Amino acid sequence: MTSSAPIPEAATTPAESASPWPALWALVIGFFMILVDLTIVTVATPTIIEKLDASVNDVVWVSSAYMLAYAVPVLITGRLGDRFGSKYIYLAGLTVFTLASLWCGLTTTVGALILARVVQGLGASMMTPQTMAIITRIFPAASRGQAMAIWGATAGVALVVGPVLGGVLTDSLGWEWIFFVNIPVGIVAFVMAVLKVPALPTHAHRFDWLGVVLSGSAMFLLCFGIQEGHQKDWAGWIIAMIAGGVVLLVLFLVWQRLNRAEPLVPLSLFRDRNFTVSNAAITCMGAIAASFGFPLMLYAQAVRGYSPLQAALLMVPMAVMSIFLARLVGSLSDRLHPRRVLGFGFATALLGFLLLTWRLSPGVAVWELAVPMGVIGVGNAFIWAPTATTANRNLPMSLAGAGAGVYNATRQVGSVLGAAAIAVLMDSRLAHYLPGAAAHGDAGAAQIRDPHVAELFSKAMQQSLWLPTAMYVVGLIAVMFYERPRHEGFGGHAAAAAAPQGAPAEGR
């Protein structure tokens, strides 16, 4: 490096003389845990329906409450990290999350479980933006792509491992243990973070409280209205809630543009096309991850008579391929155009989902389900990590914290809307094929013995899977708009930078 070369901002942090990798692994433990809890409930859905005398919609709210409480505050919690220290906000959130996990396992009613999940989601919202912001600040630009690849791959693997772990615990120890397992993991994560994560410099911020109120109210009205709409026959007050949510969302965006002090979401972030496209892609993936497990697990347990563990094993091919390809994909993300990497990922996962949906019937052979799941895993491996890596490639360090908050918020928004939409779709399809099943949860509580009923239930779940399939289509279209990255070390970047102004840039 010549004397005129800029010093990486990460080098000005207290961690400049120490390797940042131990801090990354310490953060990954907690990040992995809170993402596992996004999907770990799906495989236990039939058991919770039976043990807590709940409906399908009630149990979907067990996940939606967590996602909603996770999504709404995540923008402001990112700023809290900048103000009071990312390490300390992370540790506070980890404490809240771990204690709320204990509360979840001790509940005896579905209402109490939903309330405990709200608190658990608040803890997760304090943790997530700190992980991405800390990684961005402690890693120099040359190795930041590798670190973000691990962070992104952790998200993809965690959302697949959740149902598998949930099946093992539900089958062997009971549904309560899908929450109790977080306690020892949370303690280990806390100790590791105290020892390995540096306390970074803080910055004064003015908090956009009006933005917080507008965004939070909009999200709540939209998600509650969408999820409860079918249950309430789309009554006038439900339509009013949804309309009110849209109005508040528009007002939020207008306020962010007018706020000259320090908006909650700096709209200048979206001038970077790759950041915008990455947010669209991760919104789709959030919706997919939150939605596809419910119909698949209900089909496996109600139609095929699988135990929670056996049902969860259907996810293993997806998890194996995601883990196996993580390192390869991480290296490709630094060298190949993101349009090629993510285009391949979305197209492959879409193919796998079309195969899975086509073959979802009572008598299909297990391998005919395992193969599509493996194909989906290959596709997802080329989506999760590259999306996270590409999102902040071109952002200046001064906007890293804000970018991390927005990126995580959009992923959670996708998760909330995906969970709400799948509840509506499953209720609708069950009401069409098996009137009464959606309201009482009878079809999902035990194996269906009547072949005719099993066939109808399979059709309902099969048609519900068109939601995540459609999200893969939207994601595939979105990533076609990626432009050539501008980060140092990208193939051909130096030549492109040296080209005369106005010369065409290859691959844009």
TrEMBL record:
It is found in: Cell membrane. Keywords: Cell membrane, Membrane, Transmembrane, Transmembrane helix, Transport. InterPro entries: EmrB-like, MFS, MFS_dom, MFS_trans_sf. CDD domains: MFS_LmrB_MDR_like (cd17503). It is a multi-pass membrane protein. It comes from the Bacteria. It holds the Pfam family MFS_1. Residues 23-487 form the Major facilitator superfamily (MFS) profile domain. The chain crosses the membrane at residues 23-44, 56-76, 88-116, 147-165, 177-195, 207-228, 234-255, 276-299, 311-329, 341-358, 364-385, 465-482. This is MDR family MFS transporter. It comes from Nocardioides ginsengisoli.
